[in-house]
Amino acid sequence: MKLLRKMTVTALTAVIAVSAAFAGGAAAAGSLKGKITVNGSTALLPLTLQAAKEFQKMNPKVKIAASGKGSVTGPQAVKKGIADIGACDWDASMDVPGFKAFDGQVANKVAVIPFATIVNKNVGVDNLTTEQLKGIYSGKISNWKEVGGADADIVVITRAFGSGTRVNYQAKALDGGDIVKKEKNYKETGSSGDMKTAVGTTPNAIGYIDLVYVSGDVKAVKFNGVAATTENVINGSYKIWAYGYYMTKGQPTGATKAFIEYVQSKKFQQGSLKKLKFIPISAMN
Amino acid sequence: MGTSVTPVQEPATLNGKGNGPAVNADPKRHGRHLLSNNLFTIYSTFSILALCLVLGLVILFIGKTALLLFGQISPADFFFSFNWTPEEDAFGAAAFIVNTLSLTALTLLIAVPVSVGMAVLCAEIAPRWMKTFIRPVLDLLVGIPSIVYGYLGLTVLLPFLRRISGESLGDGLLAAALVLAIMVLPTICRISDDAIVSVPRKYRDAAYALGSTRLQVIMRVVLPASSRGILSAVILGMTRAVGETMAVVMVIGNTPQLAKSLFAPTSVLTSNIVMQISNVEFDSTWNYALHMMAFLLLLISFVMILVIRILGRTRGKNA
């Protein structure tokens, strides 16, 4: 079923891309016209959808189709010519662990995504250092009492290899350290929602997630003594965050360029983007 | 269809005998008939061909991508190595194959006795009001999306398993098998039910006439007589269990390793595909390996359906 759906989506996006190419050729100077296809990260999808809605209101002749699957499908779709914009949680024009750089693609920063280390409500620990996290994820630390908690085995919950959240968490929170599979007390989840449920329902569990998802049965722990809040990301003291990118084949042109500029504009960044709990890119400069 | 056929014509065609004279009496009506019949034949043929084409394309597409794998690694590595570490170019799927088979076996071990028991209850023992209650409830259970079962497994079953086993995670083959057993139970139960109901009444009457108790009739007469039907019910349930993904992925732990205990987090073919397919590059060995795993699942299902077909044919001969 999954494959079938993937095939249909690919076929549909291909059709849209072809018609976009025709429409793009006919675009005249002046009023903006064309079709833009966005594919890739699910984390950035709400942002893309909101921006598309607003942009299409201002430019009724531009049609934007957006879908989300996984970060790496973004730059891949751009490479194959299926999509005009590939949303990705990392800068895909450079090498990251597990994924080679996509040559000839330009990374356009559109948002800041903060991530948080989360633990089950029953865990007494509320601060973890980089070294402690590295120990936990590499399997060297396997009991909460080694990091100042109760005497209980640590249950490690992580995202599957290749997840944008995992790539960023590994780079920022673990300082490039490994996430090692263990015989037991180790579990992989497929999405942010599953991660939250799994950590929330498993006593002694630790995991990581986009900051916006933190609520209810899970609590975010401090990282090197700094609380995971948007303020601390902006003032530079909280380090686990990453830019979200729109990847394009070469420099963007035409309607695509205008759309990316709209997402980067002060109006959108300070308005809808903030409301969706992302952080404006300008806040980081 | 509806516009060309007038209500008056229906009885004439349905009772059969009016067909010949009607042709002679009204050549215009005959022509209309011929036309609508031909149109319907063309439409049906077209539908069937389209379906075959789509199916063929699916098999071709998956198979083609899957076979590219063996240009990169040897089949022996794929089928017999237990080391699945795609990040380091190790693509051994043996653990998933073994886990898939053991998960299916464990599921059937839990589900078959319960569901066949329920089928016997439904068909032989329960009073009429209970039958009219149980059957629709079972049909309803089939309609619940599998991800809902998975979520319930994650939030209700896992904490329970953790409490009784003392494990700190609880994920593994047992959790997955329990969730799957609940999912395949209605399928096996309803089809077995039908098989038992279709056992001729005279068999039971004869057995009772010889002085059998109800238990003897059920165990010695009814169940053996409907065994082929029950077997195909089990195989249908098995195909569902083998291909099920969303519920399994939430409770199995998704650690690619051979399951050494019922509570060790592990992974099966379906869950591994769904966890990784969205995060791999299109033209990579990893992607081909996942396609090969999908192709394997397709083959397993195909073999099972073939078995049902063969069973169905021999049953037809016996009757």
From TrEMBL, chain A:
InterPro entries given in the database record: PBP_domain (IPR024370), Phosphate_ABC_transporter (IPR050811)
Gene Ontology CC: plasma membrane
UniProt KW keywords: Lipoprotein, Palmitate, Phosphate transport, Signal, Transport
Residue intervals of the PBP domain: 27-266
Signal peptide span: 1-23
Keyword Lipoprotein: yes
Subcellular location: Cell membrane
Bilayer topology annotation: Lipid-anchor
Primary location recorded for the protein, binned into one broad class: membrane
GO BP annotations, alphabetical order: phosphate ion transport
Coiled-coil segments on the chain, per record: none
Gene3D superfamilies (alphabetical): Periplasmic binding protein-like II
Its job: Part of the ABC transporter complex PstSACB involved in phosphate import.
Subunit and partners: The complex is composed of two ATP-binding proteins (PstB), two transmembrane proteins (PstC and PstA) and a solute-binding protein (PstS).
Protein name: Phosphate ABC transporter substrate-binding protein
Protein source organism: Paenibacillus donghaensis
TrEMBL record, chain B:
Pfam families: BPD_transp_1
Membrane topology designation: Multi-pass membrane protein
Family annotation (SUPFAM superfamilies): MetI-like
Compartmental location: Cell membrane
UniProt GO molecular function: phosphate transmembrane transporter activity
UniProt keywords, alphabetically: Cell membrane, Membrane, Phosphate transport, Transmembrane, Transmembrane helix, Transport
Annotated region described as Disordered, given as residue ranges: 1-23
GO cellular component terms listed in the entry, alphabetical order: plasma membrane
Superkingdom of origin organism: Bacteria
GO biological process: phosphate ion transport
Chain ranges passing through the membrane: 39-70, 90-116, 137-161, 173-192, 229-252, 288-311
Record domain ABC transmembrane type-1: where: 97-308
Family (UniProt): Belongs to the binding-protein-dependent transport system permease family. CysTW subfamily.
Its biological purpose: Part of the binding-protein-dependent transport system for phosphate; probably responsible for the translocation of the substrate across the membrane.
Name of this protein: Phosphate transport system permease protein
